[in-house]
Structure formats: C-alpha cells, structure tokens
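DATA SHEET
Item: assembly model
Revision: 1
Owner: S.N.
Input lines:
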Amino acid sequence: MTDSSPRGEERLQTGIPGLDTVLRGGFRPGRTYMVMGLPGAGKTILANQVCFHHAADGGRVLYVTLLAESHTELVANLRSLSFFDSSRLPESVTYLSAFTVLEQGGLEALAELIRKEIRAQKATLIVLDGLVAAEEAAPSPQALKKFIHGLQVVTNLVGCTTLVLTTGGGRGLRAEHTMVDGLLILKQRMFGARSIRELVVRKFRGSAHLLGKHSFEITNDGIVLYPRLETLVDEGATPLPLSNARSAFGIKGLDKMLSGGLPAGSATLLLGPPGSGKTLLGLNFLAEGVRKGERGHYFSFYDSPERMLLQTAGVGMKLAPFLARGDLEVSFRAPMENILDKLGMQLLEAIRERGVKRLFLDGYDALQKAAVRPSRSARFLTALVNECRVRGVTLVYTVETTTAFGPQVEFPMRGISMVAENLLFLRLAELRSELRRFICALKVRGSGFDPALRELLISAKGMEVGATFEDAQQLMTGLARVTAPAPRPRGRRGK
Amino acid sequence: MGLILIVDDEFGIVEAIRDLLTDEGYRTAIALNGREALERMAEERPSLVLLDYMMPVMNGPTLLEAMLGNDSLRDVPVVMMSASTPEHWRHLRCAAFLPKPFTLDQLMKTVLRLAGSPSES
C-alpha cells in the first residue's frame, strides 16, 4: 500500500467490481485521472461503466471524444453491455464530439469548450476520450502540459472529476502523463497462447490504494476486476494461536495417528500421487466437520459436484444431504484458463461471508496453472493460508507429487513451513505384486503424532488407516521389499 | 465595468480563474506576484483583488499592507486566498477569505457579493 488516505473523504465510486477496492473507495471527487492502455485494453468500457454508475447515483456526466469516430458507433457497441442504460441519455449522460473544435481551434479552443460545457451541463464527471488527438494537436509537449494542468485546475474548482483516456501514443509513460492526480494503466499480456488483462494503479495522489497488477476480465456486465489476493489479506491481522481443539477426519486410525485430528485453524498439505486417496481424505475431513456443526467448502478443480457425489457414494459417504442443507458447499472450476485472483475472491467470499470453518482445496497444481507467473502461486497460497489462520479456518489442500514410484520423492513446492503447519504424505507402494496405499504424518506442528507408515484402506464402507507394514521396508521408494511373512489385510483395497 | 485583479504565482490557477470569470462576463487582469499587482493597479484601480497569500517577490500580506498605505487603493476590497490555517490570516484586514482549495461556487458567490454582477460592476 502507499501513503495515508484522507479519512472519511467522500469518493466517487466507480461501480466496477474490484476497482473501488483497489482505489480504497473510488476516485477522489474533483480530481483528474488518466486511464492509459493500447487499443482494445478496455479504457472505453471502463470509463463508460463509471459514467453510467455515476449517472445512476444522481451525477451528471459529460463524455467528450476527441477522435473522429462517431458517438453512434460508440453507443452501439455499448448497448450489449448490461450497465448501458439508454434512458440516461442525454440528461444524465451527454456525449459530445470535440474533434472539429480541436482540429480548427487547437488546445485553447478545446479548453474553452470543456470549461463552458462542464458548467452548462453541471457535470460532476467528465471523460475526455482520445487524448492522443490533443497530443498530436499540441504545438509542443509544454503546451500539452499546460492544457492538462489548466483542465485540472478548472475541473477541481468546479468539483468535476475527470477521466482522461489515452493510448499514450505507443511511446510509453511521459511527463505529461504523470502530472494528473492518478494514473491507471490497462494492459493485455500474452502468456503462451493465453491472454491476461491487467490493471495497475501507477499513481493515486492523496490516497492509499492496492499496489501492483490486478487481473480483470471484460464480461457482458462490463469490467470485473480481481484485486491480487495478497493485497486483500489484512497484513496487520494476527493469526489466531493454534488451540488445543482438534479438527478430526472421522477416519478410524488417522485421527488416532494425529492425536485426535488436525489442530483447528491450521493448514495441512496432503502430498501424494494421483490415486493415493487425497481427495477422499479431504472430503472425509469436510464431512466430519459438518457432522460436528462446522460448515465446509470443497473447492475442486477436478471433480464436479455430480462426480464427487458418485465417487463418495461408492465409499459409503452420503454427502447429498449436507449439500442440500447448505452445510457443505462445492465450488467447481475446471482447470482451464482460470484467473488466479478470481479464484482468490471466491475463496475469500467463502471464508469471510459464508462462515466456512473447514476448507478443502483440491488441488494446488491447478492454482499453479492459473497463476501464469510461476512465482505467483506460492505467494497466493501464503496469503490464503494466512487468511485462514486469521479467521480460524482449518485448511486442507492437495499437492500432487511429480512421480508415483521411484527412490526419490521431490516436493513440488518450496517453503512448505510458510504454507502448512501439517504435512501428510500419501503414497502407493508395490508389495507382493499388489498396489498398496499408505499414509504417514511428516509434520504436525505443536502436537505429538504417530510417525509410522500406515496402510490407507479404502472400501465400500469408507476409509480406514490400518496397521504398519512391519513385514516390509523401503515403502517410501514405492518399491517395497518384504522382510517377513505378510499380515492379513484388514480391508478391501481399491476404491 | 470594474476590473477584477487576480494575483497568484500559480499560472494555471490564475488562468483558470481568469477564464471562468471572463466566461461570466467580468473584466479581469492577472499578476503573478505583489509587485506586478502594484504596477497593474498603478495603471488602473481595480474594483476587486483576489490575492494569494504565499507568493515570491512580494507576498499577499505585504501587498495588502501597501494597499492600505495607499489612499487610492485603501478601499479596494481584497479577497485573500490561502491554503494556510486561519490563524495566519485572521488578523489581516481583508473583505473576505477563501481557504484553498475552494470551489467555483464559493468563488463566484464571493465575487458576486463584493463586485456585484458583471452588468453592475
């Protein structure tokens, strides 16, 4: 965050989901802001969205275009967006073209037109679309600076908030772009074949704001911005101390291994290869929470609710009533082109607004894919874990190991201590030509636990953690060696 | 029609106030410091002075003092514009004070009260 914000100051809300959060309430009335971005970046939609929101709030808007394009075309393009309200035209939202005035009279004539129209229309918000045309008409950079400064003084005196839209002329950020009260930059970046839209508030005078890049998308409702999760989590908030309370899995043997369950309010990483039982463990954890009166949320990238119900029914779990009552929620996002911070907003909503006490995130790998920048997913997870700690939410999330078998086990992430108090390791091992699952606790912070490698049994009756493999060695390699006669299996293996 | 003299070292502000008052029909002149203002007033006695407090060469209070010591300028109403706290300018003998930042509405009301409407001034 930046400097201090004037307390209790009135703001002109943008009405753009997420942007008011980034701007700490909206624009400062009477100030001048520049919105910069290449063609197609979303400047016009952003400005018009603010205009119609402001008009709905009782404000009066003047939209001045300096470009040769007609308003008819602009309005026609806006009609498909839900915020567009033709009943606001022309009383509350007035579109004017200043192209000819600029062409014939230069910046002075433009300044005069704007000054007079603002007062005539009693405008409280003005948009100047296409500053690049004024830049081209300016005899010198100094003249353009003078024009912008004059505009700022007049609109400030009149109390009219100003948005100036510019492409920047493709020449990057220049001095005349930084003399305004705020600068918002819209970018569209390519990551492989994928395109991501991002907004940065480069400058915001006299107010705190959320720093850095924030993703956004353009929907039928206009722009929806997703502030970076790390900036939303209250850095000053103190995580609740780990209590003695336990969040059990409701799985025979496992809760005993963990001295009653996971410490309530902690974060737990379930690490293992595909098919090792991570998802079922997490769902058991949620189901047990519901039975104990704790609302659960399953954030899934791989199983739709229907598929989850089918799978769990096969192992004796009846989750449908929990879902019907709303005690268990499921968010399913196919691991396609997700926006990381959109996922973050959905997770925060579950935690902050719906009183979720147990959260199961399945899995981290999909977050990594959504992150587009490799270093981002770890910071995102740290913020999420911190938020859960602050709110007393017990978090369980899955991470897939890169190899199912072999002598080496690589942790697919670094800095695990930052993002997990507890680490449960699941693995598949071949023993006597049979594939067996096992589980062990590598770490449970602030608590005693059974460090033994125990068999994880999955049957139609459910999950169970069984005996240790006393007759085998080198299970961790996935290729176990028998050292003594095998004990009789205690349950049917396989889902 | 009387003249409104705007004295401020910030050219953008001087220009903006000049243009807005001109739009309203007032006759205006500008000066960027107290000394320039005195020179302008020697040419024509204004009917109202809008005066900034902090300026180079000659600041607002010094100009005000000079005007009070001048028989022909003593009665010209002065509006002091300042971003400083009232204790800095409360003691000054001005017709009105406009704490910065002020709105156009506040400015126009003050001008109208002291200089009358453009047709009267």
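QC remark: The radius of gyration of chain B is 13 Å.
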